[in-house]
């Protein structure tokens, strides 16, 4: 009994330490949010770059997603800890046990918050990419959305026609370079280096199996800071994979904003040397613009969509079929949860932020000299 009574305060102190670290992490986040340039220099291009290099050139060489190891190890650790704590608190009063378990949960939460921000999360407060690129990004009115929709349509149609051996059937994986991860990483790194943001490390973008694992949870891809890797659902249609993979790699290189990562995905595909990749990026962007135009003019959108070339229509239907195959367990809950998460990280528009790519591309177009 003497050993148990002496170890209890030590564990209690350790729990308070993790709670304190979690609160300190939130305080640092608030400080960073007040000065994006300071965050950019100290964290995004300093501490985070070191973390990026340290991981990518060690565990990053493992040929399968680290998530496959991380999840079972974490669950085993949690079960082991629960068993230990249950034995330790036997004989204590209900109130003592309840207080101890609450402290354990708060300590675990504090640890999660601490590691999340240290490993990646402070990037939400970095200098916005549009400021780094000197882009004048504003809101788009109805006329601008309509113009962007027709331009995006024209570009996607023309891009598809440049693909060798293309037919009116939906594209398949054989049209795209292999390995896709290496191609998209190289293309994105060239974009980031041109911008001047830098591309530290060698971010991994993994396909997650079984197919539909992420889509049934309401996502097509995800970057997980605790394993420092980006992931896309293996069930995505091949035409959707390049853009989605580049988006997640964008997170891996230190960008939290979803609209920004969509923009990076677009640029990585746009500036690729492979015509199939270029088309995939333009089609993914078209789908973003189409979503805005459909809300603006449902009837006009329906008529214009029906007039698209047969090959592009086949690709769109194949993409939609892949999504329908994995409809999601609780789609409304997933959207609501992620919407709240984005707002908690300072992205006030929540999931609508994804569509911000349209305004960013429009601003980027204005920067390109007209031929």
Question: How would you sum up this structure, described in words?
Answer:
With 371 residues, the chain is mainly alpha-helical. 65% of the residues lie in helices and 4% in strands. The chain has 14 helices and three strands. The chain has a three-stranded mixed β-sheet with strand order 1-3-2, covered by helices on one side. Helix 6 packs antiparallel against helix 10, helix 7 packs across helix 8 (241-252) and helix 9 crosses helix 14. The longest helix has 33 residues, at 2-34. The radius of gyration is 23 Å and the shape is globular. The mean pLDDT is 89.
Distance between the termini: 83 Å
Oligomer: single chain
Using the CA coordinates, give the radius of gyration.
Answer: 23 Å
- Strand content bin: under 5%
| Overall average residue pLDDT | 89
Shape: globular
SSE ordering: HHHHHHHEEEHHHHHHH
Number of strands: 3
Count, helices: 14
Structural class given helices, strands, pairing?
A: mainly alpha
């Amino acid at each position: 009994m003497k050993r148990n009574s002496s170890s209890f305060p030590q564990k209690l102190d350790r729990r308070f330490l993790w709670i304190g670290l979690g609160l300190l992490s939130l305080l640092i986040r608030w400080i960073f949010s007040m000065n994006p340039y300071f965050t950019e220099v100290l964290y995004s291009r300093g501490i985070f770059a070191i973390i990026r290099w340290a991981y990518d050139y060690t565990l990053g060489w493992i040929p399968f997603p680290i998530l496959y190891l991380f999840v079972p190890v974490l669950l085993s650790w949690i079960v082991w800890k629960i068993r230990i704590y249950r034995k330790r608190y036997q004989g204590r009063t209900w109130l003592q046990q309840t207080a101890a378990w609450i402290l354990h949960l708060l300590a675990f939460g504090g640890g999660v918050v601490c590691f999340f921000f240290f490993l990646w999360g402070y990037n939400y407060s970095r200098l916005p990419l549009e400021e780094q690129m000197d882009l004048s990004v504003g809101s788009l009115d109805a006329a601008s959305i309509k113009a962007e929709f027709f331009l995006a349509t024209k570009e996607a149609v023309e891009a598809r026609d440049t693909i060798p051996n293309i037919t009116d059937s939906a594209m398949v994986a054989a049209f795209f370079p292999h390995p896709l991860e290496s191609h998209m990483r190289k293309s994105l790194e060239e974009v980031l280096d041109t911008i001047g943001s830098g591309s530290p490390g060698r971010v991994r973008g993994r396909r997650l199996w079984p197919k539909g694992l992420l889509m049934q949870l309401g996502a097509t891809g995800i970057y997980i800071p605790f394993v420092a890797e980006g992931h896309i659902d293996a069930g995505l249609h091949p035409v959707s994979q390049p853009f989605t993979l580049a988006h997640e790699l964008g997170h891996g290189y230190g960008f939290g904003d979803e609209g920004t990562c969509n923009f990076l995905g677009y640029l990585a595909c746009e500036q690729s040397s492979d015509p199939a990749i270029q088309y995939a990026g333009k089609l993914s962007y078209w789908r973003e613009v189409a979503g805005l135009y459909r809300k603006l003019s449902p009837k006009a959108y329906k008529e214009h969509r029906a007039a698209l070339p047969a090959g592009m229509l086949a690709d769109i239907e194949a993409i939609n079929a892949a999504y329908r195959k994995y409809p999601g367990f609780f789609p409304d809950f997933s959207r609501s949860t992620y919407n709240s998460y984005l707002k908690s990280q300072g992205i006030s528009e929540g999931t609508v932020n994804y569509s911000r790519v349209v305004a960013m591309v429009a601003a980027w177009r204005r920067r390109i000299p007209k031929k």
